[in-house]
Automatic annotation (TrEMBL):
<dbReference type="InterPro" id="IPR020476">
    <property type="entry name" value="Nudix_hydrolase"/>
</dbReference>
<protein>
    <submittedName>
        <fullName>NUDIX hydrolase</fullName>
        <ecNumber>3.6.-.-</ecNumber>
    </submittedName>
</protein>
<comment type="similarity">
    <text>Belongs to the Nudix hydrolase family.</text>
</comment>
<dbReference type="InterPro" id="IPR020084">
    <property type="entry name" value="NUDIX_hydrolase_CS"/>
</dbReference>
<dbReference type="GO" id="GO:0016787">
    <property type="term" value="F:hydrolase activity"/>
</dbReference>
<feature type="domain" description="Nudix hydrolase">
    <location>
        <begin position="21"/>
        <end position="156"/>
    </location>
</feature>
<dbReference type="InterPro" id="IPR000086">
    <property type="entry name" value="NUDIX_hydrolase_dom"/>
</dbReference>
<dbReference type="InterPro" id="IPR015797">
    <property type="entry name" value="NUDIX_hydrolase-like_dom_sf"/>
</dbReference>
<keyword id="KW-0378">Hydrolase</keyword>
<dbReference type="Pfam" id="PF00293">
    <property type="entry name" value="NUDIX"/>
</dbReference>
Length: 164
């Protein structure tokens, strides 16, 4: 199936529809040819989760669909273009330390067009990036409290490995 932006959506992928007043975020897991997950390091100046690894993604704007937010966030944060949504990894709920309250986050494995070796990061927000496979996946836990391992858990789920 394909949406009106030309993004292919695999069978079984569903996009939740936010209810009025709910805060939603989306996350995109991009895998390279070696089966590693792309992550970017948040700057130490960020209010929410400073100096931690993060997946591509962000908040769904009012009136925006989750698919539109996913496509927008991938383009804004990397310069890549979502070509295909392979699968949904689930919906998580979490509360940040920014006072905005409960958020729902839907995470997806996506394929992108663009040079995977040269993402166009928002350098002031994400000064570094890396690729993480089973051998170094635990690095995604850096500077995260034991109960704040969502990035690691989503990446592990995308790779099909049991979280350690």
């Amino acid at each position: 199936m394909s949406d009106d932006r030309g993004v292919l959506i695999d069978d079984g992928v569903e996009f939740p529809v936010p209810a009025a007043g709910e805060l939603w975020a989306v996350g995109a897991v991009v895998l390279n040819g070696r089966g590693e997950v792309f992550a970017q390091r948040r700057s130490a100046a960020r209010r929410l989760f400073p100096d931690t690894w993060d997946l591509i993604g962000g908040h769904v704007e009012p009136g925006e669909t989750l698919l539109a937010a996913l496509v927008r966030e991938v383009a804004e944060e990397t310069g890549w273009r979502v070509r295909r949504v392979r699968r949904q990894l689930g919906v998580l709920t979490w509360v940040g330390d920014d006072g905005l309250g409960l958020r729902h986050e839907a995470d997806f494995v996506v394929e992108v067009d663009g040079d995977l070796s040269a993402p166009r990061l928002e350098w002031s927000k994400h000064p570094r990036y890396g690729w993480f496979g089973p051998g170094n996946l635990a690095e995604l836990k850096d500077n995260r409290a034991p109960d704040e391992q969502l990035v690691y858990e989503v990446a592990a789920r995308a790779l099909g490995v049991a979280p350690a």
